[in-house]
Amino acid sequence: MNVIVFRYRSRDLTQQDVEDIRGTISRYYHRGRSYISRVLCREWDWVQPNGKFKEYAARDLLLRLEEKGLVDLPPRLRPKNNNKRRSFTQTPIFNDTPMAGLVKDYSGLHLQPIQSGEDYLWGYLLHHHHYLGVPRLVGEHLKYLARLDGRVVACLAWASAAFKVKSRDDFIGWSTAIRRQRLHLVANNARFLIPPWIRVKHLASKVLALNLRRLSADWQTAYHHRIYLAETFVDISRFEGTCYKAANWQCVGETSGSAKRGNAYRFHGQAKAVYLYPLDRHFRRLLADDQG
């Protein structure tokens, strides 16, 4: 009987799985960690919906196994840089004079998708003005700047959905197996910032609505699949979720007050409200129908 010795992202690894991984490491030890992670993706058929390898997940698994003393990885070919924080000491050019009134007082609200190499202003504003700072986005994600009459008035980030949220999963009607298959069809609003000098009434809900109208199509362009549901978590000790309510998001419950750290969940006691917004009227069938 193969005993389960490790669990990673709901995948149970038996002693035989670990032995197979050790064999892969031994065969390609001289090629380095990145190469080994790609081989592991190929052997396990770990691919994203767009066909690219899930290299980050594979590298993370190898590191977790090494931490537990289950495998020995080759030395790093380059210094570890995963935890380096990006510096935002240089101030970019932007207009931070107060802006007030109503959205209708201005001539145009536009949303601009931005690429990683063009995101300094986006990162600068989040770093200096969002209480959580700049998110570490891995895997599928999108970034946006909103402009009103040409001025930057909001920053948004969308990323992969949280792996397990009971109130969300119950709302969808997900079983554990179907959730694993369809999780990539849900996107998480990881950051939303209106800079403090922007005091335009109803702007936040207008920006959210504008973003939601194009989110699924933009995801299709970037990752070759659509999104059928948006989620976000509101820290109820700080906020009331007013802009999400105004944009017709639905609060379906609260989180358990735990967060994923590495390969385990740790209780921190800070529950967050779970808000959802369907992007397709058939979202339950598209997300939960195991015949779909």
Index terms:
single chain, 292 residues, alpha+beta, Aminopeptidase, 2 domains, 7-stranded mixed sheet, 13 strands, 32% helix, globular, DruA
In short:
This protein is an alpha+beta fold.
Mean pLDDT: 89
Shape: globular
- Structurally, the number of domains stands at 2
List the uncertain runs.
none
The biggest beta sheet is recorded as: 7 strands, mixed
CATH architecture of the largest domain: 3-Layer(aba) Sandwich
CATH topology of the largest domain: Aminopeptidase
**Number of DSSP-assigned strands:** 13
Tell me which oligomeric state these chains represent. single chain
Q: How far apart lie the N and C ends?
A: 35 Å
In DSSP terms (H or I, runs of 4 or more residues), the helix count works out at: 9
Structural class by sheet pairing and helices: alpha+beta
Given this structure, which CATH class of the largest domain is correct? Answer: Alpha Beta
| Spatial order of the strands forming the largest sheet | 4-5-6-7-9-13-10
Beta fraction of the residues?
Answer: 25-35%
Give me the CATH superfamily of the largest domain: Gcn5-related N-acetyltransferase (GNAT)
H-E string? EEHHHEEHEEHHEEHEHEEEEH
